[in-house]
Design brief:
Layout: H1 2-18, H2 22-35, H3 40-52, H4 56-69, H5 74-87, H6 90-103, H7 108-120, H8 124-145
């Protein structure tokens, strides 16, 4: 029963997040987690919502909790990289993006985020390399759909 209720709160949070109502989305995700403390996707989206409202430390903590549930999640490492980028902790961000890519070598968003960060930091050759890999993955994906 609690799992079912947690899913309802999670889905409500997704709708609120999509509509830009971040404070209410955050509350819905927290309710989902309260009912199901191992609800991985609720942790993921809660972290994204917290980051988007600027609660970076809270987002970091939530993503760390998500990693305790699913330690090999490329999505969480990528999102954690985004939080560290926003915090100005570029070395941690780079480690997270590399970890996401190591876990899932076809993860376009991680290549993009890593490439953007490297480029901004003046590591242009490496940044362009990451962005080129991302573009190739996108091209390969489009080609495979045809």
């Amino acid at each position: 029963m609690k799992r079912k209720q947690a899913k309802i709160y999670y889905q409500m949070g997704n709708s609120l997040l999509k509509n830009g109502n971040l404070p209410s989305a955050i509350n819905s995700y927290k309710d989902a987690i309260r009912l199901d403390p191992n609800f991985f996707r609720a942790f993921c989206n809660l972290g994204v919502a917290l980051k988007n409202v600027g609660f970076l430390k809270e987002a970091e903590d939530i993503f760390e909790k998500a990693l305790s549930i699913k330690p090999y999640s490329a999505v969480i490492y990528n999102n954690l990289g985004n939080v560290y980028t926003s915090m100005g902790n570029h070395e941690y961000a780079k480690r997270c993006y590399r970890r996401a890519i190591n876990i899932y070598p076809r993860y376009k968003a991680a290549y993009y985020n890593y490439g953007q960060l490297l480029y901004v930091l003046g590591e242009t050759a490496k940044g362009l390399e990451m962005l080129t890999i991302r573009a190739k993955l996108e091209k390969d994906e489009l080609r495979s759909k045809n």
